């Protein structure tokens, strides 16, 4: 007993889709959020570099003259540090200046400070000043409160040049706490957008899962009613064309199973094919029961023999087809020399070739071989030869040839003769379908069907085409 719960295919697909969307949303949001903080800080550092270099150019003259503390520039720095902007950047308010600017001389002594608190102090030990005064990129991040990870301050310095030498440095500092609100806002927006987008994607997935489930239910209902013998219309699908193909296949199967296109046609045609020779045999036997001259007795006895042979041929070929259709694959395979096989078939048809004065040419390399069932493939070649003899012109020609590629061997037979009518081309391999021969007699209509079944069993294809001056039939078979 199966203990697993029955879960519909649509629901299973949605669960899988849900897991994939959830994992993707989680990984993407996690990656984006992790990259937000360093990206914002990198952007902030780049802005501080520009600002420090601008101030270094503006402060050059006053620092060189040693009058920075008394200059207009120093007063402007102090005024800048005391400003209280009333700004609102997106959803974040800004009411204080977060930048701190200080300038040192070439010894690292602070000579100007926008906060007016460290003038005169020695900052030469700090990396921003120490490295800058030595011509390197000076930057540092210092934490003000070890217990508060957000209390870090970023310092970026730029050298003050005068006559090719460094005479001081300008440092611009900014607390990382001032940019944290923007980071938090971005995180919320990313999470909100990811949740909203995931919900929308899941909604679309649920819609598709529902459509798949409903389509399967329609197909299941159609198959069930069809199996019960109900007359039900074939379901149509505008989006899922695969279901439309399956629906067409079920419709075709129904037509075949209920006898419309398979059983009725098969039985009726078989009955018709047997009825004709039976009627001829019955008529000839009734006539033979009356006194007749010797020549007429021989004539009607020949009719009985000919019609009996026709019935025997029909029954034999039907049995051969039945055996082939039951086989899913070849049981015994071996290398088959195509030239040898064709030569044997041509030799067996010598009497008919002589009667019609037909010439045969075999253009097949002795080294060409295929892997297959010798008996079945030879019977198929016999059928092709018989067909060619039925339609070839008297004193005409038949030509066997091969064409080989890396994957396939194409075995072809050409016969000079009338072209096959266009209306008959699609039906040539149907059971019992036959065209009248030169003498007006029809065959059993099973020969090409047998050839097609044998070819398919050998994983090959059959092609019949009209060519110049005749008809060409090609068997395409896999190479060894």
Task: Provide structural commentary.
This protein has 480 residues and is α+β, with helices and mostly antiparallel strands. Among the domains are: 9-184, Beta-Lactamase; 328-478, Histidine kinase-like ATPase, C-terminal domain (Heat Shock Protein 90). Helix content is 51%, strand content 19%. It has helices at residues 9-65, 72-81, 127-133, 180-227, 241-257, 263-288, 294-326, 338-348, 350-356, 374-391, 447-457, and strands at residues 87-89, 92-94, 99-105, 110-113, 139-143, 152-162, 165-175, 334-337, 359-363, 369-372, 397-404, 408-416, 461-467, 470-478. The strands form four sheets. The chain has a five-stranded antiparallel sheet with strand order 4-3-7-6-5. A hairpin with a 3-residue loop joins strand 11 (397-404) and strand 12. Helix 7 (294-326) runs parallel beside helix 11 (447-457). It is elongated and about 155 Å long. The chain starts with 8 loop residues before the first helix and ends with a strand. 21% of the residues are buried. The model is unreliable at 259-263 (pLDDT under 50).
Topology:
Elements: H1 9-65, H2 72-81, E1 87-89, E2 92-94, E3 99-105, E4 110-113, H3 127-133, E5 139-143, E6 152-162, E7 165-175, H4 180-227, H5 241-257, H6 263-288, H7 294-326, E8 334-337, H8 338-348, H9 350-356, E9 359-363, E10 369-372, H10 374-391, E11 397-404, E12 408-416, H11 447-457, E13 461-467, E14 470-478
Low-confidence stretches: 259-263
Query: What class, by secondary structure content?
Result: alpha+beta
What topology, given as strand order, has the largest sheet? 4-3-7-6-5
Question: The CATH topology of the domain at 9-184 is what?
Answer: Beta-Lactamase
pLDDT averaged residue by residue: 80
How far apart lie the N and C ends? Answer: 48 Å
Number of helices: 11
CATH architecture of the domain at 9-184: 2-Layer Sandwich
Beta percentage is: 15-25%
Biggest β-sheet description: 5 strands, antiparallel
Please state the oligomeric state of the protein chains shown.
single chain
Compute the gyration radius: what is it? 48 Å
- H and E string: HHEEEEHEEEHHHHEHHEEHEEHEE
């Amino acid at each position: 007993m199966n203990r697993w719960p029955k879960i519909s295919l649509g629901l299973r697909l949605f669960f899988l889709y849900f897991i994939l969307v959830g994992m993707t949303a989680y990984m993407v949001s996690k990656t984006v959020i992790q990259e937000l903080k360093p990206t914002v800080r990198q952007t902030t550092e780049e802005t501080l570099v520009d600002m420090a270099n601008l101030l270094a150019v503006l402060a050059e003259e006053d620092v060189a003259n040693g009058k920075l503390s008394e200059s207009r520039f120093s007063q402007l720095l102090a005024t800048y540090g005391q400003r209280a902007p009333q700004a609102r950047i997106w959803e974040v308010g800004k009411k204080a200046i977060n930048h701190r600017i200080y300038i040192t001389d070439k010894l690292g002594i602070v000579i100007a400070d926008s906060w007016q608190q460290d003038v005169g102090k020695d900052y030469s030990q700090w990396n921003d000043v120490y490295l800058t005064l030595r011509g390197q990129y000076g930057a540092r991040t210092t934490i003000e409160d070890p217990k508060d990870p957000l209390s870090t301050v970023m310092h970026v310095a730029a050298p003050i040049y005068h006559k090719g030498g460094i005479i001081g440095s300008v440092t611009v500092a900014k607390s990382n706490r001032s940019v944290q609100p923007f980071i938090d806002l971005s995180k919320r927006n990313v999470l909100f957008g990811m949740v909203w987008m995931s919900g929308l994607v899941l909604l679309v997935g649920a819609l598709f899962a529902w459509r798949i489930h409903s389509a399967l239910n329609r197909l299941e209902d159609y198959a069930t009613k069809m199996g019960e013998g109900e007359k039900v219309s074939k379901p149509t699908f505008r989006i899922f064309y695969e279901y439309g193909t399956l629906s067409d296949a079920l419709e075709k199967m129904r037509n075949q199973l209920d006898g419309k296109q398979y059983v009725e046609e098969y039985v009726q045609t078989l009955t018709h094919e047997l009825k004709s020779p039976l009627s001829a045999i019955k008529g000839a036997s009734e006539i033979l029961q009356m006194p007749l001259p010797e020549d007429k007795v021989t004539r009607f006895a020949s009719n009985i023999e000919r019609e009996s042979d026709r019935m025997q041929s029909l029954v034999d070929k039907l049995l051969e087809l039945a055996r082939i259709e039951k086989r899913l694959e070849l049981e015994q395979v071996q290398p088959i020399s195509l030239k040898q096989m064709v030569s044997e078939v041509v030799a067996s048809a010598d009497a008919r070739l002589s009667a019609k004065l037909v010439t045969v040419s075999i253009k097949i390399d002795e080294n060409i071989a295929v892997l297959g069932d010798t008996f079945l493939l030879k019977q198929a070649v016999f059928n092709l030869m018989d067909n060619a003899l039925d339609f070839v012109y008297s004193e005409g020609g038949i030509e066997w040839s091969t064409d080989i590629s890396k994957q396939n061997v194409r075995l072809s037979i050409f016969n000079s003769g009338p072209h096959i009518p266009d209306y008959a081309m699609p039906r040539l391999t149907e059971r019992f379908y036959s065209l009248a021969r030169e003498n007006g007699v029809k065959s059993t209509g099973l020969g090409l069907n047998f050839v097609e079944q044998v070819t398919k069993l050998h994983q090959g294809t059959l092609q019949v085409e009209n060519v110049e001056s005749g008809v060409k039939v090609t068997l395409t078979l896999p190479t060894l």
